[in-house]
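anyone seen this seq b4? input:
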Amino acid sequence: MEYIIALSLLVAMGAWVVGAYLRLFHLYERVQGAWQQWSLATEQRNECLRDFTDAIADYLPAGDVLPQDMNRWEEDSRRALQASPTAPREGNFTCIARAERHLRRAVNYSVRTLENTQLMRENEQLLSLCSAVSVSLYQQDAQMRLYNRSASEYNTALHSPGAKIVAGIFGFTPVAAGEC
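predicted toks r here
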């Protein structure tokens, strides 16, 4: 009888550990999928920005460094994404966040500079490119919100008692949350 109780407890503990592992594994896979979608949205945004930057370079005052800056920040964003093929660990979002902040400021400045000008109203290509950048920024933000929800759910799950044990054994670590 004692063996049956001991065996039952071992089976229950084993099922508990397997359940905790499977939950963390599932949540981690969701985080990775959301990260891949955000990365794809960011790459698409960068493509739109390259076209937009090339187009506005012709219309900005001579010597304006904005196009070179935008190209450099887009390149920084691309390199940061290549350096993080998987969701970054907690605290390792700095490089990506910095590149994104610079790009956002530059794009906002560019659009504000051109949006109410006669040049913008008369140029279909600039209107189209500006619209494409806006749509790509919206899509990127939507993907970042999805990633942040997934990351938050995963990080929260890591703090449950069972998950702490499983995470230590199987190497599950918190992931970084991004910025929208």
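The longest helix spans residues 2-57. The chain has a mean pLDDT of 83. kinda curious what u guys think
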